Amino acid sequence: MPAIQSPQSFNLWLKLSTTLCSATLLCGCAAHHRTTTAGATTLPAEDTKNAAASTAEKNVMGTQYFPDASPERVVRVTEKVFPAVVRIDVAQETYSEGKRQLRRGIGSGVIFDKDGHILTNYHVAGRAAELYVTLANKERVPAHLVGDDHWTDLAVIQMDMDVLKDRKISFNYAELGDSKRLVPCENVMAIGTPFGLARTVTLGVVSNTDRTFYPEQQTIDEYETGEFSNWIQMDTPISPGNSGGPLVDMYGKVVGINTLGIRIGQNLNFAIPIDTAKHVIEEILKTATADKKGSVERSDLGIDFKPLQDLETFYNIDINKGALINSVDRGSPADKAGVKTQDILLELNDQPINVRFPEEVSPARKLISDLPVGSDVKMTVRRGKETLHLTAQTQKLEGAVGEEKELKVWGMSVRDVTRRYANEEQLDDDTGVVITTMSTGYPAAKAELQSGDVIRSINQKPATDLDEFMKLYNESVKNKDKTVLLEIQRNRGRNNAVLKVTY
Amino acid sequence: MRKTILVSIIILLASITSRAEVDPAIAQKTYDEVSKSLVVIQYTWESELGRQEVNGTGVVVSDDGLVMSTMTITPTSIPDAQMKDFKIILPDDEQTEIEAEFEGRDERTNTTFVKAKEKHEWKPLKFVDQPVKIGQTIMSVGLLPKAAGYKPYLTEANVSSILRGPLPQVLVSSDGTAGVGSPVLNSDGIAIGLVHNGPGFREDQRNPLASILLPPRTFTPASDFMLSLKDPPKADAPIKLPSIGVSNLSGLRKDLAEYFGLKDQPAVQVGDVIPGRAAEKAGLPRGAIIVKVNGKPLERGDDPSETWMILSRQLRRMKVGDPVTFSVITKPNEPPKDIKIVTQERPMPPNKAQRYFAKDLGFGVREVVFDDTYERRLPADAKGVVVTLLQPSSAAQSAKLEPGDMITQINQTPVESLKQFEETYEAFRKSNPKDAIVLEVLRGPNTQIIRVEPPRD
User: Fold this and answer.
1) Distance from the CA of A190 to the CA of which of A178, A283, A417, A422 falls in 20 to 30 A?
2) What is the CATH architecture of A299-396?
3) Which tens digits make up the pLDDT trace of A172-184?
4) How many alpha carbons fall within 13 Å on the CB side of residue A228?
5) CA nearest A131: which of A162, A160, A164?
6) For chain B, which domains are there?
7) What's the pTM?
């Protein structure tokens, strides 16, 4: 099994890209490198459309043929999309040695509307504290994070439009296409700024439109990702720094976001389908406010599936009917509704559900995540010879990684304990915060606390969640408490620790 | 190879013995006398995947051929049933092999006992509980590795420090002692301790000279294991260990102790009280701080974190059914409250559990023990079998079964016991040899459905 470019590799790619970029410049390879006519804003969109219409034949099955990558078309698409592709310089928020720190990297992005919104990867711009965008006309402008979604590895950022207006900078934006209609072998172009090299294009074909890495679980900096959609696989070479850039079809429309490559493979590259991204963009733009990041709300039942392939005979069921329940989280909505492992889920709100192959796992998960949060769901379940009708109430999907804060005085960083984290770590409940990192020589490290310890109370006052915890912490710091009693959960034990704090 | 080993041993020993402080005549006498009590314990570790010969040094401690060594040669990670064919080898020129029987481990003192089945004129070594003094010269006599014909060798060192930990250890100067299982003697040749910590048989297999190149530097004083010599385990009467049903104990660090008003008082906090067991029944609350045991202050370790280990070793040395009284506090500066707990027998450890090896599909399982249900937060009576090992490249391994998985269902039949699992498994394999077996397993907090397809041949 080849190693997939996540999770560390995302960072590696970003880090590597920075070093390589400077290395390239140092050895002079980039000297006299002419970028394309950036800022030349003639948009041959209409022409492209016409050209497309003329070649849009259909075969007997009704599948539309794709236009070929003729020199003329490639040039037109390049001219159309290049001005909408940006380089993103980012400082992402991370926590290490008890402190909030910034990690710098670069990636690509694509402007998709007149308001200067840019679509990119979560692993490029998620949790960004500082963003700069370099446009095709080489102008560098500040930007800010509008919203992010680690589950799909996507983020939306926006250029600071006041700056653009003041400096009279113009830009173009790309059109989002339709990834559903892609077919294998269709020509696509990956555009981006690999290693920070200004706007590069690589041409290739779609290798697979519906790729899954099931059952491998992917994460970005511990954040779960890739659970709710499959991937477009293509052979257009992409490199570190390409992340977040658009994958474009021969109509010049964005069909995917270039996200990862398998380094030990030969041109095995993956993009997030634009259909997935369109939903994420919509939700982020809808929920973002001036002081709150936009996000995507999803539902959760606390179940996961296993492809039924080769197990239909064992369970004595018809093929292509039903989804095998592989696990039910303790205390989850499905658990409360009485769903059990090895049940076959036949219908969800009267809609048939079917997971025979690994590729069908993500769509099935999405079926659940798309349900309204807090709504009742009818589950038709087959158990042995019985058919059961169960009702579960969806809850909001939470990731395992909670919000993180630094505690300067105590010398540590903590995260909120989420339901998922509590379940994975088999904690008593989701009360408290978990220690992530510590600074040596500060009270937390001196008291021999460990990362992974869950703090449940401060001076015998319960710290139910991160907000409550921060309130108690700030109070204690304000009072200049010299000794602080903590209640710690470590493994299955509850113990106390005392912090000796100096101010 | 053998020659080089011998040469290097001679060089090493020469460098050690050149600093003798004991009268050479006494050293020679001690060497001659103690050598007669030293033997090699040998057994075959027969696991599901193969056999391995294990050797270690032992000391004869009784006229009828009882031999003591340390648990290092019979670690608890090896299931009792997999240790077979015990032998006592005399380190004479013939390397006489004597049939022997495993009497058992004594976890109270970290020792292990093997007894000869054949008659022989044994020369037991008598251990004396004698206080150890800083600077005193000690000798130890051990046996060289098999490649050197188990030749006895003597080392000398000085006592550097007396350490207070869960297993009391005496630190000696850099000359060190002989290998694990060797007796330690004072300058008069009286046995006062045993070498406990050092390279075990696994290291010895990698490098037979491990104990000579890097001599152990600690030994356990006889006071710690006299108990085992008085009351050693027997094959038909293993040592029953007591338990009170608490876990996640921790020693109070200075700052925490002071917070609770326990200045200069060693104390232990109880992290978890196990439902349904003795401590819970006696009313010991979770989070309680133990300040006294049977009216006496807790024994201090060199580091506060060791206090709980010393306490639990102290408890391990009690008899099942013995009462123990803890004086506990739950709030700062509170007068201690006494809680009397009657000890129960310790739940079965994993190495004593019954096992079954599903050879055809290549996975081993054992019955569920207390540790399994406790770790997984399951009710104590939860049923299943736990996967212990996977044969490399077997059907079970390619089906992604994992060691530690707890199998709760086989072909949708709930697993009730190891025996029932074995019967169900074998009956199905016999009746449907070509069909896959579907297992439901608990892995961490989740379940997994595992389909094991038999190999096609």
Assistant:
1) A283
2) Roll (2.30)
3) 999 999 999 999 9
4) 24
5) A160
6) 1-239 (2.40.10.120), 242-345 (2.30.42.10), 350-452 (2.30.42.10)
7) 0.87
